[in-house]
Amino acid sequence: MDKDIFKEKIIQFAANVFQRYGYKKTTMDDIANELRKGKSSIYYYFTSKEEIFQEVVENEARDLRNEIMISLEKTKDPIEQIKIYVLTRMKAYNKATNYYNALKNDNLLHLDFIDALRKKYDSEEISLVKEILQNGVKSKKFRINNVKLASIAIVTALKGLEIALYEDTDNQSTEDRIDSLLNILFYGMIVK
Description:
The chain is mainly α. The protein folds into two domains: 1-47, Arc Repressor Mutant, subunit A; 60-187, Orthogonal Bundle (Tetracycline Repressor, domain 2), CATH 1.10.357. 77% of the residues lie in helices and 0% in strands. The protein is built from nine helices and no strands. Helix 1 crosses helix 2 (28-35) and helix 4 crosses helix 6. The longest helix is centred in the middle third of the chain and has 27 residues, at 112-138. The N and C termini lie far apart (67 Å).
């Protein structure tokens, strides 16, 4: 088997094991058993469980970013783009469980790459939202005094609402909950 293909196979199988047991409880034996190979074949490609987990998380992060970017290409309308962004982001987290766990689990802070990953992702996410908002201001679809601050506020709000948006609330669809969130974010609650 080609070395690159086998390395990808290790990452793919390890992702399933990490998802099932979590980082802390997963062992190299678990990954080897999932692959039906010996641990030595894994150690040929990776020096540690942490190194494998880092690859798994970075792959999921890359897939998430790609999915968001592809979704955003469907329209140039900033109002639609912000809706698409939020919806795609929230739905993609269901698929990127290891990545999501790495961002949210404070028990993983001892892993050197986690803090850098969090900072990088936050920066990328804020930049993307900022770009959408700037386009909305330019096209006079948004009226925002401080685009950078608004971007940070939207990203922070989304992080705080990730779990709540997926709980089954009155049989309301995820899209409906996201539309409600966006209405509050964009139009507020105050009657003028």
